[in-house]
Amino acid sequence: MSNGEQNATGRGTSRGDSQGGVQSVDRAITVLEILAREGHAGVSEVAAEIGVHKSTAFRLLAALEERDLVEQNTDRGKYQLAFGILRLASAIPTRIDMARQAQPIMDDLALQFDETINLAVVREHYAVNVQQSRSTAAVASQNWVGQLTPLHATSSGKILLAYMPDEQRDSILDQAGLPKLTENTVTSRKALLDQLAEVRETGLATAFEELEVGLNAAATAVRDHTGEVVGALSASGPAYRYDKARIKSTEEDLKLAGSRISHRMGWLG
Q: Are 114 and 165 within one domain?
């Protein structure tokens, strides 16, 4: 075997050690992600997705199988994740601190948008803000951390309502009602449900002066490792500055930030 050539385990020799080793690790991690996403896959499927020869995919799977990270199931020899993954996962705290995971991403977004960024979760029939980042332009804005806000009148609340089970949502709306807070507050349940259906289609919720006059906001979902929506990431600012056009132009960046937080929470979607 010449210098720089890889051996059967994917390890390089001589000057190829570093490059070959990193590539093998990257491919092995990709294989685990494929199996986590698909549930199971054969050698040919794995090879096609990571762009390698079947023999290379087989060696990767064999190495992972030796470590009890994957195993063959009874479905024509396809591979799936094995109990070794649980052994590794058990070393992680059972509850990942979502606010801590979100903070650096929120800080970056606040600087990018020059607006206030909040992270909210459901508490009883309210949305409660658990983390906040403020830009230089928003230093004098209100501190929303710890504050309870009505679900129907905020962008974060609409995200949380949109993705919760119907029975839970109906119970919350029955209990909390749809009080009118401004002239723009949605007080019709049918109109709100129509909005929530659109939220599920677009992945974005908005609130235009519905909680306070002069305050606009947009929000997107944050998911945990199961794909369940566990929080809402929002950007808010003065209506004269954070208007519909500005929200539209920053929509994809907000969604991307929500996906990045979700990824840090273990979501593979």
A: yes
pLDDT, mean of residues 77-105 = 75
Range of the domain at 48: 14-89
In tens, the pLDDT along 145-155 reads 777 888 999 99
pLDDT band at 72 (very low <50, low <70, confident <90, very high): confident
Selected residue with higher pLDDT from 158 and 84: 158
- Rounded percentage of the chain residues whose pLDDT exceeds 70: 85
Average pLDDT over the chain, rounded to an integer: 84
Contacts of 165 by beta carbon, 8 Å cutoff, 6+ apart: none
CATH number for the domain that contains residue 185: 3.30.450.40
From 89, 115, 140, the end of a domain falls on 89
Final residue of a structural domain among 48, 63, 89: 89
CA within 13 Å, CB half, 53: 4
